[in-house]
Specification:
- It is flat and about 95 Å long.
- The protein has helices spanning about 1-20, 25-45, 60-70, 75-95, 100-120, 120-125, 135-165, 170-185, 185-215, 235-265, 275-280, 280-300, 310-345, 345-370, 375-395, 395-410, 420-425, 430-435, 445-460, 470-480.
- The chain is built from 20 helices and no strands.
- It folds into four domains: about 1-130 and about 200-215, no CATH class; about 135-195; about 235-395, no CATH class; about 410-480, no CATH class.
- It is mainly α.
């Protein structure tokens, strides 16, 4: 327990040094590395690592933390905090056991989170001084040291103040110290100090509680659930097969329409507007494909008794659903691609592409499982989703959006769908691409770009970042903007 308390206290102080009053930057990467190393060390020391393969999840966790100093994307800076925490919990669950059924996995995730709060009581209890030790020599010595400090500190302060008033050189040495002390002892300073100490205490308790929950026996995480998956999820086979059959009939009709109208352009309607038809429905199709995956998962974790014929029929219907889902994914992807060519790229449109690609990749282990292969669909899906999310982070999405939309603009400057307002909402990741718009023949576009870059330059130079806030994207943008002779422009 002493080691857990010591390292938890170190992490609590470290987070205060790295994050208090600072913007996230290289600090997130440093803190994540420290937490991952601490976690692996303490679990290994307590022989709680059963499945070493789960350590592979440490790779996306560290990579996502590195985006805080490589890129400067506000959306991912917010979202990645939750993703890193969730991936950390998933890693802890899989370290304790090679595989889980879906219901057991979700229960374990809840136990990691809930047990962290429950186990903080163990940390608090371990900090209490037992009654039999209060009278020993070490405790008495601590009391004496405390009394000595209370008497010594006021005397030292009085002497220092007198000497500072007597000698200017001496005053210069200690002046900054007393100025800092006066700031700390002001009302605002005291409130900030108390708040900071409170955060340190909370982080200390949560870090300690998190580890105690994982390593100590009979905690919420390590309690054995006797009913864990004896019964499992049960649905009537008739209900499952009826859902799959009806869906396959609907998807067959839909797929025929897609192949004839969307891909082959063979509509018999003379008033048929192919361009409008093709550039719609991608969001709906994405959600339909997602629903299909949920239905397939429930159909294949169903523990109700099945005859040989029922198993065969269920497998055939599931494979057909996969085939039709792939057609739906291709249709949604194709429609989105046409929409992007006409209206440009945005966060949401790129996210749709990545969701569709991720669903396509997840369909592969599901097909392998349906064909009799031995594969853990849940574990494989987590790895695929984590991989795709890391790729999405490292594609530098702001720069990608700016590059594609600006290229579209220069290829067709009179394009009425060019959204300048959306581009001026992007961050420093897009700075280099945005400077290309300064070469536009449209004065309005040039002026808006100059104003955007001018504001960005002012914001970057207004406050000098501390080392904890270091960010490659901001530093690169500063260098690019320093080379530009940009002035504020006023336009109607």
């Amino acid at each position: 327990m002493g080691l857990i308390i010591g390292i938890s206290a170190f992490l609590a102080i470290l987070q205060s040094i790295l994050f208090w009053g600072k913007d996230p930057g290289v600090s997130v990467f440093i803190f994540t590395i420290a937490c991952v190393m601490y976690l692996i060390y303490i679990l290994s020391k307590n022989k709680k690592i059963v499945n070493k393969k789960a350590l592979i999840l440490a790779i996306p966790i560290v990579l996502l933390s590195s985006t805080y100093f490589i890129f400067n994307n506000l959306f991912f800076k917010t979202l990645n905090i939750f993703v890193i925490v969730v991936l950390g919990m998933i890693m802890c669950v899989y370290l304790s056991k090679p595989s889980f059924k879906c219901s057991e996995f979700l229960r374990k995730i809840g136990c990691v989170f809930g047990g962290m709060f429950e186990s903080t009581s163990d940390i608090i209890d371990s900090l209490k001084i037992p009654e039999d030790k209060k009278e020993n020599n070490s405790f008495e010595n601590l009391k004496k040291i405390g009394k000595a400090l209370l008497i010594t500190i006021p005397i030292i302060l009085v002497v220092l103040l007198l000497l500072m008033s007597a000698d200017q050189v001496f005053e210069g040495i200690f002046d900054k110290i007393f100025l800092n002390l006066s700031d700390i002892l002001s009302i605002d300073g005291i409130i900030k100090l108390v708040s900071r100490l409170a955060v340190i205490l909370i982080v200390f308790l949560l870090c300690g509680g998190f580890i105690v929950n994982l390593v100590k026996d009979n905690t919420l995480f390590n309690k054995k659930d006797e009913e864990s998956s004896k019964t499992g999820i049960k649905f009537d086979n008739l209900t499952i097969n009826m859902i799959l059959t009806i869906l396959n009939i609907i998807y067959l009709i839909f797929s025929i329409i897609q192949i004839t109208n969307l891909f082959m352009h063979t509509s018999n309607n003379p008033n048929f507007d192919y361009s409008s038809y093709a550039r719609q429905g991608f969001f709906q199709l994405m959600f339909v494909s997602f629903i299909n995956f949920v239905i397939l998962i429930f159909a294949n974790i169903n523990n109700a008794k099945k005859t040989k014929n029922q198993k065969a029929y269920n497998k055939i219907m599931s494979l057909l659903i996969i085939i039709f889902t792939i057609i739906i994914i291709v249709s949604a992807f194709y429609r989105m691609n046409l929409y992007q060519e006409t209206y440009g790229y945005t966060y949401l449109r790129i996210f749709v592409d990545f969701v569709l690609i991720t669903e396509s990749l997840i369909s592969i282990p599901i097909i392998i499982k349906l064909l009799g292969g031995k594969i853990d669909i849940l574990k494989t899906s987590i790895v695929i989703t984590s991989f795709m999310y890391v790729v999405l982070n490292f594609m530098n999405i702001d720069n990608f959006i700016a590059e594609k939309n600006i290229d579209r603009y220069f290829n067709d400057p009179k394009n009425s769908n060019f959204d300048m307002s959306y581009l001026t909402g992007l961050g420093t990741d897009a700075t280099e691409e945005m400077t290309k718009l300064l070469k536009s023949d449209d004065d309005y576009i040039v002026k808006r770009t100059e104003n955007y870059l001018y504001d960005q330059k002012q914001n970057l130079n207004f406050v000098e970042d501390d080392w904890q806030e270091y960010n490659i994207s901001k530093e690169r943008a500063r260098k690019i903007l320093d080379k530009q002779n940009i002035q504020i422009n006023y336009y109607q």
